[in-house]
Amino acid sequence: MTRRGWLLFLGLCIMWGIPYLLIKVALRDLDPGTLVFLRCALTAAILLPWASFTGRLSPLRGHLGWVAAFALCECGVPWLLMSLAEQHLSSSLTALLIAAVPMLSAIIFRVSHPGEHLGATRWIGLVLGTLGVGLLVGFSATGSTGAALGMMAVVVLGYTVGPLIIAGRLAHLPGGGVVAASVTLVAVIYAPWGVTHLPTHLSAGSGWAVATLAVVCTAMAFLTFFALVVEVGAPRATVVTYVNPAVAVLAGVILLSEAITPAMLLGFPLVILGSVLATRRRSTQDEPGAVSAGRLREPSPPRSSPGEPRPARRHQASAPRTPDDT
Questions:
Q1: Neighbouring-strand partners of residue 161
Q2: Which of 81-95, 256-270, 307-321 has the highest mean pLDDT?
Q3: Residue 303 resides in a domain
Q4: pLDDT in tens, 262-311
């Protein structure tokens, strides 16, 4: 991975490692639907004027269906369900369950690419990862409900499909425009509920949590995530969820006094090891969609038709590439 890829990766690990704690804090004064509305509305207020002024929205015409699909898979549905689930789960356990995303991403990628052989190492990884999630769900979910765990399963599915949509359908579009349009759409959907269920009192802690969720964990994080998917590809980008739980567990233990159970200490390493093994590739191959080896494919130069002179070869060095637009 390039230096730029590592910087994007490490930054995203932090920005997406703290939302679980912030959601837990914000839910003290807000219901889940209102929290999703405020988070998306504040993010849209930041990104939409900028994206419109810089011309990042106009290229989305003709792709609005996929933008809407990405918005629903990545934030519209998961954020509501995760907020509902966190009323019965600790922020640490919620984050640990998200670690199943790379494993599911590996399964979907292999199924959608039949030519990609699923060898013994990957099967071992899937088994270990499944065992790890089973330990987390079966022994660390004290006080949780089946409904909460089912909600988290849908969240994991959404977080898996979202990057695949970016890589396969949206990677050639400005990331800032896609993110701005996505959060605006979700804010509009949740507006009827959010506006009518605003709290009469919002504590300073909840207010700061919502603001941080919008500015850092959504606006900044999604722009970073979009750039990361374009830089390294969707399956590799989901590996960010390996480190997120460590940040979330540390924050939950320090700031919310959440306990670390023996099942967490055993299940989490199994999930990480299983995900790493399940996403390993024996050779460098194209990622789904328009992303190949972490870079956007460039169109091949047109061939000369019969009778046309071939262009002379240029011996000078080509101009340096410019960074991908986000």
A1: none
A2: 81-95
A3: no
A4: 777 887 788 778 767 765 655 444 444 434 333 333 344 444 444 444 44
**Could you give the number of structural domains in the chain?**
1
What's the number of CA atoms in the CB half-sphere (13 Å) around residue 122? 17
Is 323 a domain residue? no
On whether residue 73 sits in a domain, the answer given is yes
Q: Is 196 exposed, middle or buried (0-12, 13-18, 19+ CB in 10 A)?
A: exposed
Task: Say what the pLDDT of residue 237 is.
Answer: 66
Task: Look at residues 94, 92, 74 and name the one whose alpha carbon lies nearest to residue 83.
Answer: 94
Asked if residue 324 is part of any domain, the answer here is no
Distance CA 275, CA 49 (A): 39
Backbone angles phi and psi of 228, in degrees to 5? -65, -40
What is the reported pTM? 0.72
Mean pLDDT calculated for residue range 169-176 = 90
Note down the domain range covering 41. 3-295
- CA neighbor of 67 nearest in space, from 153, 240, 236, 184: 184
Mean pLDDT, rounded, for 144-160: 87
For residues 40 and 164, is the Cβ–Cβ distance under 8 A? no
Between CA 217 and CA 107 the distance in angstroms is 27
